[in-house]
Amino acid sequence: MALVNYVEAMTDEKDWYITNLSNVAACLWEQLPDVSWVGFYLMNDTVGADNGAERELILGPFQGKVACTHIKLGRGVCGVSAAENKTLIVPDVSQFAGYIACDSEAKSEIVVPLCDKDGKVIGVLDIDSNTMNRFSEANEESADLEKCAEVIANILQR
Q1: 78 near 110, Cβ under 8 Å?
Q2: What per-residue confidence (pLDDT) applies to 109?
Q3: Which of 45, 83, 133, 149 could disulfide-link 74, Cβ–Cβ 3.0 to 4.6 Å?
Q4: In this structure, what CATH number is given to the domain that contains residue 65?
Q5: Which residues, at least 6 apart from 30, have a Cβ–Cβ distance to it below 8 Å?
Q6: Which residues, other chains included, contact 129 with Cβ-Cβ below 8 Å and sequence gap of 6+?
């Protein structure tokens, strides 16, 4: 079964978005082999916590070790993905300029932006692995994760 089918099955339009994102993080954690962290960072203005602050990513539901709580746009893999509104696949995080090491054991990462209906980034899906080259190229799995991101973005806009 494709990942997007699992994600669709795990979400319910009647549930609070935190409930849905929590279940999606757990689902992806269980379904994806060789991952060490799966979770979401949401734009502070998406979650209603901006208080006039500069736009940044704030930690949302996740599975894995304790994580960074705030990421500025353009910093780290998540911040660059959000700033550039594109999926980033990093086969070796030690080679990524400005990498933020929340988990010193992480070796590779994929970050997929979550966009609203107007194409504005409202968050990111972040997945790490302790294996080098786990996310080494765009493939069927990364395409499926991008489809999952569309479902997740729709959850955030309900």
Answers
A1: no
A2: 94
A3: 83
A4: 3.30.450.40
A5: none
A6: 34, 35, 36, 106, 107, 108, 109, 135
Mean pLDDT by 10 residues, the chain (158 residues): 80 83 94 96 75 83 95 95 96 88 87 95 96 85 91 85
Q: What is the sign, positive or negative, of the torsion defined by CA atoms of 91, 58, 82, 4?
A: positive
Residue 112 zone, left/alpha/beta (φ > 0; ψ -120 to 50; rest)? beta
Alpha-carbon span 29 to 96, nearest angstrom:
24
44 and 55 Cβ atoms separated by less than 8 Å? yes
Alpha-carbon gap, residue 153 to 133, rounded angstroms: 27
Name residue 31's beta-bridge partners: none
pTM: 0.90
Q: Say how many domains are in the chain.
A: 1
Give the domain range for residue 135.
3-156
